[in-house]
Give the backbone structure.
Amino acid sequence: MILVTGGAGFIGSNFVLDWMAAEGSPVVNLDKLTYAGNAENLASLSKDVRHVFVQGDIGDRALVSGLLDKHKPEAIVHFAAESHVDRSILGPGEFVQTNVVGTFNLLEAARAYWSALAEPAKSQFRFLHVSTDEVYGSLTMSDPAFSETTAYAPNSPYAASKAASDHLVRAYHHTYGMPTVTTNCSNNYGPLQFPEKLIPLMIRNALQGKPLPVYGDGKNVRDWLYVGDHCSGIRAALKKGRPGETYNIGGNSERNNLEVVHALCEILDELHPSGAPHAKLITFVKDRPGHDWRYAINATKIKNELGWQPTEKFESGLRKTVQWYLNHSQWVENVTSGAYRNWISQNYEGRSAA
Ligand code: NAD
Ligand code: DAU
């Protein structure tokens, strides 16, 4: 039995589905179901007794402690977070509350539970903290990729809140000896991603014939990892990761944003032709404040120590992703409710074409 937090979000729900298929042991899934959480992602598990879904907040100590005492998990895999950089710029408070205070609360509940365990359960327990490469800040084109020893330099409120949570996790290992493992991953893409992030937003807009809003000059670089590869990386870190260590997870797929959007347009031209090339919809808009220039991951440590490396090529992963969104238009319709439309006007109205 493991306890997953945020398991109704994009990566969390992919992880729960992947875990069930690969490991099969039961999962307690604690998720607040914010705008980003969607119980429909787990519909295929609705009759599966191995999956226990609990709607609640990681900040609710009584709830978390009760779940730990009742289900006695061997591990906590912590995904729950506010995750969108643009939202953190327009409203950082919720990011501090969930990512920092929420993680602190989860760590405190976990510490009480873990301290009372008998051996060997105590030393076998793991608190796996899912974090991001954004904690390392921004690279120039000639800088070496982020490694586990790169100094933290978070630039957005989101990145700062994740960095703070990473520091707390580190301290709980160093001070109390709690067996924590932290993973820092690059940009994920794939099925079930909420259409506020670059790839699903561009797919949705293109299918509706709407402008494709590229921030700044579109030259910012990200490293892209197919979500299924992230899930297998987390499983490897959970099984074989050394307590107190951090592992970078990346896709060896650096692309600038314009390259990504053009690649999406070409796939859509082929799979869903609209009469005119989708690339005609590309519109340059006002840049994100403090926009990090480049992220790149050196994933040598996880490859050498844990034998993990990504298996999906960016081009094939992107094609699968576009096909998934084409096949799941009802899912997109369901998640892009009134609240989604409010966000789109809040974020994009002030960014008239550059
Ligand atoms: P997401 O926004 O899609 O999902 C977050 C989930 O957490 C949602 O289901 C939401 O309901 C839940 N949640 C939010 N606040 C909560 C709270 N207080 N209590 C309980 N549940 C709460 O995020 P994602 O993209 O799936 O990211 C998951 C994790 O992975 C995050 O910690 C993020 O920082 C990290 N990460 C994401 C990426 C990426 O590219 N998306 C890359 C690296 C790391
Ligand atoms: O690097 C890991 C991080 O990747 C995760 O920790 C975050 O949770 C996740 O959201 C993601 O952050 P980014 O800011 O890199 O992702 P996003 O999809 O928001 O943007 C990717 C790039 O595309 C970035 O350079 C900004 C740009 N962009 C984004 C949007 C939403 C646009 O040009 N236009 C857009 O409309």
Remarks:
- The chain has a mean pLDDT of 97.
- The longest strand covers residues 126-132.
- The pocket of nicotinamide-adenine-dinucleotide (ligand 1) is lined by residues 5-6, 8-12, 30-34, 36-37, 57-59, 79-81, 83, 98, 102, 130, 132, 162, 185, 187-188, 194 (CB under 6 Å).
- The chain is about 45% helix and 15% strand.
